[in-house]
């Protein structure tokens, strides 16, 4: 267990506006997610005419989540949209409209509680020009600190030229990117047992990370800041196999070095639950590339953020980095703006 009181940042925390825009009614398309309040303390997200997920008011009420953060010892949450709201399948202009509404909301929460929250925006990833323009607005006008993107856009992986144009623009602007799985590979075979969350998402994340590496963009922009959620899913565990494929089939090589060389440039959250899994990641990538994140406020979340770090026998300096300091550096924050009281 951690012996010191460390500054703690929950890098992986989702939020949705309580007055989420009703695009189903506006555009006559029930594929758009909608929010139907069931009481003062809860709501349901609907999509495709049926309930997608039940949520509590901590999903949109910053006061409720601050109370929980205080209970759990979390100093700062990094707010990002819920992936179902990406809506990359939609007309790009409508997706941009939805992105702007969410980015404005997240910026308003950060402005109201600037010492407790940091914001990540969303963009219409299916259209690089619109995505880049909204990234510029989110960062330069709204003051958000990065962009969350899905693991694919309408089946196009992260090595797609249109998506790479956006990622390249983020690299040039030094904007951090957070990749979250959505529209997972093999979803049609995962209708039972909630496998989409427990198996589909980790597999999807591995596909996204592998695609990014083979795109060559990490070779071109070695300082690109990009983090994969859920500990990179299954990616760390199949990386040796990806390397072996690169060695075995010279015709598939798109980079000068094998994939594991570039994987060391990636960041990951620590949401892997098992200390042995986290130790495996530390051995692979080091403690400088790992950031505690909980997946707040959903049922699979870790309570508190960084619990798996706390229980490990590690130098306190390494715990300090993973629990908060790495996120501060990754997002370019001034830590002094977020400390409520002296850290003991």
From TrEMBL:
InterPro entries: ACMSD, Amidohydro-rel, Metal_Hydrolase
EC number of the protein: 4.1.1.45
Gene Ontology CC annotations of this record: cytosol
Record domain Amidohydrolase-related: where: 9-333
Alphabetically ordered keywords of this record: Decarboxylase, Hydrolase, Lyase, Metal-binding, Zinc
Pathway: Secondary metabolite metabolism; quinolate metabolism
SUPFAM superfamilies: Metallo-dependent hydrolases
Presence of keyword Lyase: yes
One of the GO BP terms on file: secondary metabolic process
MF (Gene Ontology): aminocarboxymuconate-semialdehyde decarboxylase activity; hydrolase activity; metal ion binding
A Pfam family assignment: Amidohydro_2
Family: Belongs to the metallo-dependent hydrolases superfamily. ACMSD family.
Subunit structure: Monomer.
Listed name of the protein: 2-amino-3-carboxymuconate-6-semialdehyde decarboxylase
